[in-house]
Amino acid sequence: MSLEEVRSCIDRIDSQVKDLLMERLDCSVQVVRAKQQQGSTQIFRPDREVQVLQRLGQGVPQDRLAPYLGVVRKVMETSRVYQYGILLEDDPDLFSQVAGSQLCSGPTSRVTVRATLPDRCGALPDVLSVVGDYGVDLERMVQEGTSLQMVLRADASQPSVRALLFQLAKECSDFAVVDCA
Question: How far apart (Å, rounded) are the C-alpha atoms in residues 181 and 163?
Answer without folding.
Answer: 18
